[in-house]
Amino acid sequence: MMLRVDVSKSLGDFHIEASFAGAGRVTGLFGASGAGKTSLVNMIAGLLRPDRGRISIDSETLDDTAARVHVPAHRRRIGYVFQDARLFPHLDVRQNLDYGRRMNRLADDPVQRARVTDLLDIGGLLGRRPGQLSGGERQRVALGRALLAQPRLLLLDEPLGSLDEERKVEILPYLVRLRDEASVPMVYVSHNAGEMRQLATSIVMLRRGRVIAFGGAEVLPEALPSGLISANTRTSR
Amino acid sequence: MFDISPTEWIAIQLSLRVAAVATLVATPLGIAVAWLLARRDFWGKSLLDALVHLPLVLPPVVTGYLLLLTFGRRGLVGAWLSDHLGVVFAFRWTGAALACGIMAFPLLVRPIRLSIEAVDRRMEQAAATLGAAPWRVFSTITLRLAMPGVLAGMVLGFAKAIGEFGATITFVSNIPGETQTISSAVYSLIQTPDGDPAAMRLVAVSIVIALAALVASEWFARRALQRLHGN
User: Fold this and answer.
1) Residue B1 falls within a domain, yes or no?
2) Fold topology of A3-91+152-219
3) Which of A41, A74, A130 is CA-nearest to residue B125?
4) Of A49, A82, A86, which to mutate for an interface test with B (greatest number of B Cβ within 10 Å)?
5) Which residues pair with A203 in a beta bridge?
6) pLDDT, tens digit, for every residue of A117-152?
7) So what's the ipTM on this one?
8) Of A73, A78, A129, the CB nearest to B230
9) Best label site of A19, A20, A156, B166, fewest CB within 10 Å?
C-alpha cells in the first residue's frame, strides 16, 4: 500500500503545507501538539477538505482539488481510532464492534470477529455499555471497531493520548500486536518519541504544519533517560 | 357528576384523535425541519425559522383565518386538494388536526432542534469513517442520540394540540361529532344555561389527560437518557 499526501490547508492563521508518502506498515506522524498532525489525519480520513493538493492510496485518488475530486469519508474505507475513542454511547460493545460491518453491508464473519476480539482481549466486554468501560478498554474497543469495518488503512490519532502512564503500558503491546498480526497498514500520530520508536516503521516529522524530516527512527530526537521527550527539540536529519 | 354523556365522550375521543394525528404527522416533518435548522446553513434559514415560530406569536384566530383562506373549500390549496385528491379540510376533523398540527409545530420543533444541536458531531464523524453514509449517520446516530428531545417535542406538541382552541374553532368551527374537541365543547357548555356540571367533567378529563402526558413524557425521557448514558 502506498499513501501519498501533498496538501495545503489554512485553518485561521495556521497553515499546513505538507507532502509525504507512506509505504511501510506503520507511518508515524510525529510532532508537537499544534504541528498539524490531527488536521493532516482528518484530511486523509476525508473529514477535512484540503484547500489545494492531492491525496491518494495506491492508484486511487481520494482528493484532488485541481480535478475537483473529493471522496467522502464513508466511501474511503479508512479506519480511524480517535484519541477520545468516540464509542457510540447508545450501543453496547458488541453493537459498536458490529457497526462498521453493518454500514458497509459486509457479510457476518464470526472468524474475523473472534480474531479481533481475541487480539484485543475484549471478548469479556461485549455486553457492556461504553459508560461502563475504563479508558484503556474503551480504546481497545475503538481499535476493534475500526478493524472490523475492514479498512485498507488505519489512522490512529494519539490513541494513548488520553490515558495515564499505566494504561499506556497496558495498550502499547496490543498496538504492536496489531502492527505485526493484523496486516492493515497504519498511520500513527503521536508527540511521544518513545511510542514512535516502538511502533513506526517510517517517520514523518512535522513542525508548524510543515514536514521537516522523513525517515526511520534516526530522525527522532535523541532518547532521554526518561523516555519522555519534548517534541519541540530541534532536530534535523 | 362523573356520568360522562355520549356527546362528551365523542368530544374526548375526537380531541385525542385530532391531537394524536396532528402529532404523528407533524413529527417526521418537525424532525426534518429541526435537523435543517440545527445542522445546515442555507439561504433563507432565518425565514424558515421565523415561519416555524409564527404560529406561536400570531393570534390563533389569525392563524385559523389564514388556514380558512388557504385550505378552505375555495382556498387556493383547499380547492386543489378537494378537486384532485378528494381531501377536504374545511369543517372536518382533519381540518382540526391540521390546525392543531400547525399550532403545535413550533413547540414540537424546538426541543428536537436543541437535542440535535447537542449531539456530538464527533460521533457522527466516527460513524462516517466506519462507512456510514450521511442518511445512515442520521438514522443510526444523530436521531438515536436526540431521541429524548424528540419525545419531549412530541409530548409538548400533543399537549398543545389537545388544548388548541382559537385556530381550530376559527378554521373548522364547533360542530359536535365532527370538529367539537374538549376545548370547544367546554366553551359551548359554559355559555349554555346548566352547562356547568358537564363543563366541569370535561375540565377534569383535560386535567387527567395533561397529567398522564406529563408523567409519560418524564418516563420516556428518563428511559431514553438511561439508554444513552448506558448503565
Assistant:
1) no
2) Rossmann fold (3.40.50)
3) A74
4) A86
5) A28, A215
6) 988 899 999 999 999 998 889 999 999 999 999 999
7) 0.88
8) A129
9) A19
